[in-house]
DNA sequence: ACAATAAGTCAGAAAAGAATGACTACCCGG
DNA sequence: CCGGGTAGTCATTCTTTTCTGACTTATTGT
């Protein structure tokens, strides 16, 4: 049994794992907002992503969470308040984003 | 009319453009082979991508070419010989791939 | 009491992406 | 002439992704 890192599951192309994690129409933009603006809230996020819809954003957030890139935190149950923030792993992607910006 | 860079067409999220260019099941692997092994030939590529098929690889190559990441060159018409190589823009992606590898 | 906000879920439809198998055209070696 | 290699295209089907609209549960403000 070969041990593989989370970004390299079941293949030998490192970029492919990351690309899969960030695939889909909304994940890159969600991540950018998380990097630029800090904690995100669901409805606010929806309003900041023109053309998006609850379902797709909900799925994107869930997948990013499953990938360990963002975390969902219940801030307050009483007036319901949930926040999505970058995990340490998520913060590790910042240099990659920066590197990409140098290409522009 | 606003001028936009090729990696940033019609949006303000730099990673999104790149992600779109590299989206799909085969592009990352094709790029990896182009980076690691140099010039690629169609049938050789097919053999190196288990589970792939002509159609999908053909489309992937065409899209990478349209993105200006690889170039299709006719080496010899007589015994038909075509090569796919990284363009300068394509080579610009190598640091990004390297950066991703540091995450593993 | 009523409307609005928060954070979603669910079923179904539509659109996009990927795979299949057949087919083309040309060349090379035996 | 036949088999195999090069480099694909085309139409159709299958699968995955994305979107739409209705519905949920609970709280706050007027």
Helices and strands, with pairings:
The structure is a homodimer of 104-residue chains.
Chain A: H1 14-21, H2 27-37, H3 42-48, H4 54-66, E1 70-76, E2 81-86, H5 88-91, H6 94-101
Antiparallel strand pairs in A: 1-2
Chain B binds a DNA duplex (30 and 30 nucleotides) through helix 4.
Task: Describe this entry's structure for a reader.
Two copies of one chain form a homodimer. In chain A, a hairpin with a 4-residue loop joins strand 1 (70-76) and strand 2. Chain A has helices at residues 14-21, 27-37, 42-48, 54-66, 88-91, 94-101; strands at residues 70-76, 81-86. Chain A has one domain (11-101): Winged helix-like DNA-binding domain superfamily/Winged helix DNA-binding domain (Arc Repressor Mutant, subunit A, Orthogonal Bundle). Helices cover 49% and strands 12% of the residues of chain A. At the A-B interface, helix 1, helix 2 and helix 6 of A face helix 1, helix 2 and helix 6 of B. Chain B binds a DNA duplex (30 and 30 nucleotides) through helix 4.
In a nutshell, what does this entry contain?
By secondary structure, the first copy, chain A, is an alpha+beta fold. The first copy, chain A, has helices spanning 14-21, 27-37, 42-48, 54-66, 88-91, 94-101; strands at residues 70-76, 81-86.
